[in-house]
Amino acid sequence: MSSPRPPLFLLIFDFDETLVDENSDDSVQRGRALPERLRQSPRGVSYNEHMRRVLAWLGEQGVSPAELRALYEKLPLSPGMAELFQFLSKHRELLELVLISDANTFGVEAKLRAAGLRSLFRKIFSNPASLDRRGFLTLGPYHRHKCQECPENMCKRKILSEYLAERAREDVEFQRVLYVGDGANDFCPAGILRAADVAFPRKGYPMHRLIQEKQEKQPGAFQAAVVPWESALEVARYLQELLRGC
């Protein structure tokens, strides 16, 4: 028997304010009287380390992992995202889905499983989160890197580059890479997309603004096609045309 045909397209999703319509870090803090030292990330401390301290404080206040999981599970999907994933579920053989997020594995996995989406993703890349001896949720950095544009705990360009190289060694070459995101840290990996690839920045968010600035200052430097979206239905419509005839 012949082996199944490898997927033609790699579809990358961000999580916060892309797949879900909120910043999950903000959501777990909402309505809580954080002490002054935790109300904003102090100078000299990375945001990743700041959130590690916030999660530790929440544990000390008696907020259980079950309560945190419930908060993550209730995060609303972005407009049109449920319909987009209904479409994607019908085309699994053509699309390989990966999620790259600067949130944390605990929250991302909780939301994806609650929404019935986890099985659609081949791989999740996010900051490691686990329970310590006290039963508190602890957060770590994803990796080290040398990128000057990204937070010290995660460079999504490095993750995407390494993933593409890994899949190439497994004899999987994608016709196109498709990237759905919103933030400045999504602009960095979008910079390695080729002319055949597509960037889907959320309209009016930092990724979109940075792409526009790049196109204005250096015409042609940003190679990928750019398809801004307000509703993920716009992404679904584009993909529907792309997959027509495949």
From TrEMBL:
Keyword line: Hydrolase, Magnesium, Metal-binding
Cofactor: Mg(2+)
Residues reported in the UniProt entry to bind Mg(2+): 14, 16, 182
InterPro entries: HAD-like_sf, HAD_hydro_PyrdxlP_Pase-like, HAD_sf, Pase_PHOSPHO-typ
Residue numbers annotated as active site: 14, 16
One example GO MF annotation: phosphatase activity
Binding-site residues for substrate, renumbered to this chain: 25, 102
Gene3D superfamilies: HAD superfamily/HAD-like
One protein family per Pfam: Put_Phosphatase
One of the GO biological process terms: bone mineralization involved in bone maturation
UniProt key word Metal-binding: yes
Family named by the database record: Belongs to the HAD-like hydrolase superfamily. PHOSPHO family.
Name assigned to this protein: PHOP1 phosphatase
UniProt lineage: Eukaryota, Metazoa, Chordata, Craniata, Vertebrata
